[in-house]
Amino acid sequence: MPTVFLPDRPNLEHFRRQARELQRAVRAGEPAALARVARVARHNPGAGGGAAAFGLAGAQFVVAREYGFTSWPRLRRYLGTVAEHGWDSAGAGAPAGEPAAEFCRLACLTYSGQDGPHRWADARRLLAERPGLTGDDIWAASAAGRVDDVRRLLAGDPGLARARGGPFRWRPLCYLAYSRAGDGPDVVAVARLLLEAGADPNEGYLFNGLPYPFTALTGLLGNGEQGPARQPRHRQWRPLARLLLDAGADPNDGQALYNTMFSPANEHLELLFEYGLGRRETGPWRARVGELLPSPAELLRVQLRWAVEHDQRDRVRLLAEHGVDVGSPFAGDGPPWAPGDGRTPVELARLYGHTGIAEDLAGRGVPEPAADPVSDLIAAAFRGDAGAVGEVRAGHPDVVERARRARPGLVVWAAAKAPGAVELLAGLGFDVNALGRADAPVEQEWETALHHSAGAGDVGLTRRLLALGADPHARDRRFGATPLDWARHLGQPATAELLEPYNRE
Fold first, then answer.
1. 47 pLDDT above the threshold of 70
2. What is d(CA 212, CA 245) in angstroms, rounded to the nearest whole number?
3. Average pLDDT of 64-80?
4. Which residue stretches of 206-341 are H helix?
5. Do residues 384 and 421 lie in contact, with contact meaning Cβ atoms separated by under 8 Å?
6. Model confidence band, residue 50 (pLDDT cutoffs 50, 70, 90)
7. CB distance 311 to 317 below 8 Å
8. Minimal CB count within 10 Å: which of 219, 308, 495, 501?
9. pTM above 0.70, yes or no
10. How many CA atoms lie within 13 A of 502 on its CB side?
11. pLDDT class for 43, splitting at 50, 70, 90?
12. Which residues pair with 165 in a beta bridge?
């Protein structure tokens, strides 16, 4: 597993420079460099001969292993894949010169800050003003769902179904799947024409060169971190997804699973399970990206953890019914928001007061977790059960101090998932100005609880946090923004109005 994440837009010279720097540091005897080599020494063909003789091949091997590759040639092979299949999201904001290209640019989800209904409205307006722009452009015709144009263009040249073009150098099937301005029923017929002409049902790209394939299926299912208003699923997602899956699209689509896990809706999972999600590995992306892609079982365990932590009871049931392991601890290296910290699903459910999920898991034979005073205290607080909090404290006088050490940013997670617990936690001495994460219950210094409430438009919680001493001038660690900045950026006028007087002081 990688110990360092790949940078956006990776290039070979970047990694060569790192290897040369590591080689020099090892030969100079720098402790940190020697420790890096020691971590992979048993795999490293260039580690022998001592620090003074440490070669460039050995340094390259260490760098490759740190990024999750089995060897330097595997890293170079991946960069070749990036050269062929990578896409730079910077192009989303650059206006195109030709009307057909500009229509495609505006019509499609790009998973950048550019996404939103205003772009699709602009695309539709441009198409209404220039209806002929799809006549000789397969990419625009596919994005617009113009079946007659697509049929005529493919009849003249079937190879267009596999041709790169348009503003993003995508193939037609991607423009169709990511478009939100040409999503009428005719688009299903367009997709069928493209597939019949040889389009790849696993068509996609690597976003900014990172090992996350954004496939046509990913585009159809939509959603993501910016929410369904800015990144909705395709209106025809169900028939289109079934068409792609029938044609051989891989149901183990990690990016699609990630983008859709924020919503409790499960129709997409039911469809993917029907086509083999979690049961087999298919499609070309695993061969292209290799060891950087998690296995189908790992993908589903991440889905399980998110569902347990976010009280998605129906999803937990669905995953369990399809054979996902609901009993074992989460171990190994997971993403930052789903760590392998040794907790079991039922422990997580109990910890955050999701008693329904815990009962469902117990009904499946999952044993109850051992008593843990810190977890019991947090669970009682998240339930808003002051009496139970008092009982835990009475039995374990040091439990509050231990809980604060273990979860210093807990108030941020509580603000997102159990707002009623915020006052109780503040009364126990948890810092209302602590930095934490509101999207996952892990300790990472991102934002304060006030940032979350302001960005979510929760006026009541914002008032309560201010009364508890939350700092309206605090800046988050990712963007350097205040809670008022969050409210304004995320379009929350009510909390912005509430915070504006504090920022005039």
1. no
2. 19
3. 95
4. 216-221, 237-246, 254-260, 267-274, 285-289, 296-309, 313-321
5. yes
6. low
7. no
8. 501
9. yes
10. 20
11. low
12. 170
